[in-house]
């Protein structure tokens, strides 16, 4: 699978997110995950070093609030974002397309897994019929067993427990 962000694109998107509002690193990670509908979430090892680099370049600054670094865009960061507005529009289109592609891949994987499971279930049922060994409750009822010698239902109650003698069909005597 190709990377979600091409070289330098995450950097640009981080500037965009910080232009919307000051944020701490964890919030940036969760916001990216939300924008990708849960299909992608960058690791802390991806986001924090990039935020530190943006700060070293003078594009963002941070303030400590409640023990967390809250990053915000500087004037230089806003200027870069403004200069790269067309590139940002392309990036947002790429993100939408990437989400659609990831979702399609997941749907296809799920379809394939469901198809494999149905095939395996059909094969298991065929094998059980061929060998005469149907699993307990094969008719859908709990504890159902057929007496293989007579073809009649065996005198067993729910859960496969034996019914008391004379209990079958004697209700209401």
Write a short abstract of this structure.
With 173 residues, this protein is mainly alpha-helical. The chain contains 5 helices and 3 strands; from the N terminus they run αβααββαα.
3D structure, described in words:
This protein is mainly alpha-helical and 173 residues long. The protein has a domain at 9-99: Arc Repressor Mutant, subunit A, CATH 1.10.10. The protein is 53% helix and 8% strand. It is built from five helices and three strands, in the order H-E-H-H-E-E-H-H. The protein has helices spanning 9-20, 25-35, 44-56, 75-83, 85-131, and strands spanning 23-24, 60-65, 68-73. Strands 1-3-2 form a three-stranded antiparallel sheet. Helix 2 crosses helix 3. The longest helix is centred in the middle third of the chain and has 47 residues, at 85-131. It is elongated. The N and C termini lie far apart (71 Å). 9% of the residues are buried. Mean pLDDT is 78; it is low at 156-173.
